[in-house]
Design goal:
By secondary structure, this protein is mainly α. It is about 75% helix and about 0% strand. The chain contains four helices and no strands. It has helices at about 5-15, 20-35, 40-75, 75-85. The longest helix has about 35 residues, at about 40-75. The radius of gyration is 34 Å and the shape is rod-shaped. It starts with a helix and ends in a 16-residue tail after the last helix. About 0% of the residues are buried.
């Protein structure tokens, strides 16, 4: 027997060992068919990362809105400016022109 044939027969005996076959089958089951398989874990991890990004975004929006609210509660000028910009309010002696830009 040549060395290549000897290595192949040794490898074949190892591969057909009942314990190796059982372990390989078990790992294939865990990777693809189990309720907590690697594919579902990867998808869950991706969803978690996406939701963490959303949390950061909304937390920054909350902080911006709190700062804006605090500014409006402390300053009458900023409250008046906000009312004029958002609700198109005006004083009796003023005229308001709204210019809409085409998109």
């Amino acid at each position: 027997m040549t060395t290549n044939q000897h290595k192949f027969s040794r490898f074949r005996r190892l591969l057909l060992n009942k314990y190796v076959v059982t372990l390989v089958g078990f790992f294939i089951f865990l990777i693809f068919f189990d309720n907590h398989n690697l594919i579902s874990r990867w998808e869950t991890s991706r969803k978690i990362n996406s939701m963490e990004k959303e949390i950061k975004f909304y937390q920054s929006e909350i902080d911006k809105n709190k700062a804006k609210m605090n500014e409006m509660q402390t300053s009458d000028e900023s409250l008046e400016r906000y009312a004029r910009e958002q609700y198109h309010l005006k004083k009796d002696s003023e005229d308001v022109f709204i210019i809409k830009e085409e998109e």
